[in-house]
User: What shape does this take?
Amino acid sequence: MFPKKFTPKILARYGLITGLYVALTWALPEFSYGVVQFRVSEILNLLAFYNPIYVIPITLGCGIANLFSPFGIIDVIVGSAHTFVSLYCMTKIKKDILAALFPALFSFMIGLEVMFLSDASLNFFLITGQVMLSELVIVGLISVPFYRILSRNHEVMRILSEK
Assistant: This one.
């Protein structure tokens, strides 16, 4: 998960991925925060399947993006924990489609957070189901085919796989 050495190249990659996650989240705030979430930035999650060094910058990106969440610092903590646990688990799986299920599997963390912090009296299962569906669509239905197409390009895979 952590590179053996933090070279300038690795630090630049961390900054790029962290910044990209934040930019993609902030670009569509109406879809990125609140009860109904559909974060385009979650496409980056599957990078952790291909290379564990991406767990940290994606988690950092989530934390920074959540600084502007209506749920405040709690969303920074819970959202980052959800991302970290999901991505860490992805690194332990050998099939991309199975790895893509982890963000949905851990959606209950976000469901609990939104249920407790929302003004409306919201059903935990409804919230969790919505976040789960969002994760399945973004990470499973969009990311998996996207990265499978990318994986045909050996140069792209070489760059993504560098540790």
In short: The mean pLDDT is 92. The radius of gyration is 15 Å.
